[in-house]
UniProtKB/TrEMBL annotation:
Belongs to the shaker potassium channel beta subunit family. Gene3D superfamilies: NADP-dependent oxidoreductase domain. GO terms for biological process: methylglyoxal catabolic process. GO terms for cellular component: cytosol. The keyword NADP applies. It comes from Asanoa ishikariensis. It holds the Pfam family Aldo_ket_red. Keywords: NADP, Oxidoreductase. This is Predicted oxidoreductase.
């Protein structure tokens, strides 16, 4: 496993991190989730990413149980706050309240305690703002994060899907408050490159790394979705609980046909298509870690082989030629609350 520094901090994370966005507590049973976490540990992954909102708080709880008994100092555990995170399911009757969302001091303070309880840990290594909150003063949010850090409940602060100007404003406040803002967690893949024009240059200037999600474009870059054919039964594209709304943007025949052109390139490089996709995002020097998820342990073992792979310039050019104008680069497409609904 390769390890990289997170921003300009001293914290090192595994270049491949394990995330449980749509798997733990939802898509797979707990035994399978535990097997995937063990596979990640066996493969040298030390960095685990989750969020309080995933599976209505169940994902954090499943991860906490799966990591129980591991040496805490040898792990980097990340979680997030923003969306309403109350227990969900057929037997749950809790309805989110008006303060169960966003980055107010009230919500942050309640949320960090809930996350620590579910994760069965005294602290998280990285506490992330899951989105930018346009309804709360940034000063209030950063002051609350400072109190979380100074109380020892989190070691570092990060954000997710923040724009360049938002990162600059938060970084200035973080310096005043003497807290380490070290990361942004955006979507990034061969097909989705909206961070390259503005977010990455700003982050390099500020000393902030990217921890990227969906490096395989929700599975599209594995090549398993074929143009003109229905999605495989049980795949993410057929399951609304598994992010089908996110994958739909990549499911046109034009995109799927272009993706098939990547297969001979992966074969020539001695990689699976999934490994090629993960290795591709790791070529960006501002990317500290690529988050992979799994429903089976063998998926973890396959993806982790992308760590440390160096892709030649000629291959990178061939990838760009294969995908052509289908790549999304518009910074305005950032997954902001301004252009998506909860």
């Amino acid at each position: 496993m390769e390890f990289r520094h997170l921003g300009r901090s001293g914290l090192q994370v595994s270049a491949i991190s394990y995330g449980n966005w749509i798997t733990h507590g939802s898509q797979v049973e707990e035994d399978a989730a535990g097997a995937c976490v063990r596979a990640a540990l066996d493969a040298g992954i030390t960095t685990f990413d989750t969020a309080d909102v995933y599976a209505g708080t169940r994902a954090e709880a499943v991860l906490g149980r799966a990591l129980k008994g591991q040496r805490r100092e040898g792990l980097e555990i990340f979680t997030k706050v923003y969306w309403p995170a109350v227990p969900s399911g057929p037997d749950d009757t809790v309805t989110p309240g008006h303060n169960d969302r966003g980055l107010s001091r009230k919500h942050i303070m309640a949320s960090i305690d809930g996350s620590l309880r579910r994760l069965q840990t005294d602290y998280v290594d990285l506490y992330q703002a899951h989105r930018f909150d346009y309804g709360t003063p940034l000063e209030e949010t950063m002051s609350a994060f400072a109190d979380v850090v100074h109380s020892g409940k989190a070691h570092y602060i990060g954000v997710s899907e923040w724009r360049a100007e938002e990162l600059r404003a938060a970084h200035a406040l973080a310096r005043e408050l003497r807290i380490p803002l070290v990361s942004n967690q955006p979507q990034y893949s061969m097909l989705w490159r909206v961070i390259e024009t503005e977010v990455v240059p700003a982050s390099e200037e500020l000393g902030i790394s990217q921890i990227v999600w969906s490096p395989i474009a929700q599975g599209v870059l594995t090549g398993k979705y074929l143009p003109g054919q229905p999605p495989p039964a049980g795949s993410r594209a057929t399951d609304e609980k598994s992010g089908a709304n996110f994958i739909s943007r990549f499911m046109s025949d034009e995109v799927l046909t272009a993706v098939q052109k990547l297969k001979p390139l992966a074969d020539e490089a001695g990689l699976t298509m999934a490994q090629l996709a993960v290795a591709w995002v790791l070529q960006n020097p501002n990317v500290a870690s690529a988050i992979v998820g799994a429903t089976r342990p063998e998926q973890v073992h396959d993806n982790v082989k992308a760590a440390g792979v160096k892709l030649e310039e000629g291959l990178l050019k061939q990838i760009d030629e294969a995908l052509g104008g289908l790549v999304e680069r518009d910074p305005a497409k950032t997954e902001s609350p301004r252009n998506i609904r909860a």
